[in-house]
Amino acid sequence: MRVKDFHYDLPEELIAQTPPAVRGTSRMLVFDRATGSYRDDHFRNLPDILKAGDLLILNDSRVIPARLYATRARGRHTQQNSPDPSGRIEVLLTQHIGAGDWSALVRPSRKVQPGERLLFQRANGTAADAPLLEAEVLSSDDFGERTLRFEHVEDFQAILETIGHMPLPPYIHREDSIEDRERYQTVFSHEPGSAAAPTAGLHFTPEILAQLRQSGIQTETITLHVGLGTFQPVRAKQVEDIHLHTEQFTLPVATAEAINTAMKEGRRIIAAGTTTTRTLEHCAQQAAGKPLQPHSGETGIFISPGYEFKVVSGLLTNFHLPESTLLMLVSAFAGGERGREAVLAAYAHAVRQKYRFFSYGDCMLLL
Fold this sequence. Notes:
single chain, alpha/beta, QueA-like, Thrombin, subunit H, nine-stranded mixed sheet, six-stranded antiparallel β-barrel, 8 helices, 17 strands, 25% strand
């Protein structure tokens, strides 16, 4: 299939720039996979739409303030710490590799080559202030990707909270705000490590989660730290040429047991988000027909039409960018080539009805 087969037209004014005034008040398009039909609804009705016995899986990864701003140290391949006034360098941390090493996207990338040292200071700091973080560029890849090695500090996460910015997607045309610290985060987030929010989870409130449980719907969690594998742009022309970066995940003991029991009993397993879907389907592939085993690892699974789902039987997801790998996953879940056409028809309906799109937008439930 061609990547452009997943194109649709979206007026820019439908791209949500802010979250809804009240969490949980989003609209929801309910899609019937058996018929390809759809209807308008609201997310607050999810506890009434799902059935007692359903198992809902959530991604509890927590977004870190992964967007940082740096200056280059004067003198390449040196330990000299005076900042170079030649311009600000934007750094988006995308994956913790281990110890002080991180994968990152850097802009402008042409200025930042292996051997360079980057200095990170407070937003209102001066050139005379000691940097709070220092990193050496170890390697470079295509499209602005770099590997950074940060010098050891006592509490790296605390410094990120001090100088970092919430990594809002590029289609949100504003600076991050104090409000984003809460709203670009799920209410059940627990494990820090994501460079973007698992956005299907943004709709949930404590009250809706309580209603789900009262309705007999079981909830469990996985962790997938969102990185380049989820939001990297597609540069291939053919779907079969797409390869995703790996992302780190954990399948906990309780979740593996709940999934195995639900599958044995023939109950539905609903994935909240494409990140949850990719994690569950990767684990099912690794299990090769046997019960799922709790473990941690990395996945670069790419799901497109033709894929046969092994675990997930329902999907809650936001509306995705044209020609994106996430739209391909949704099309695959809706039923391959027929599903692609039905999903694009549903998206056209959402455009006509002025749904809000992407991270802070409305959602879609496929059952």
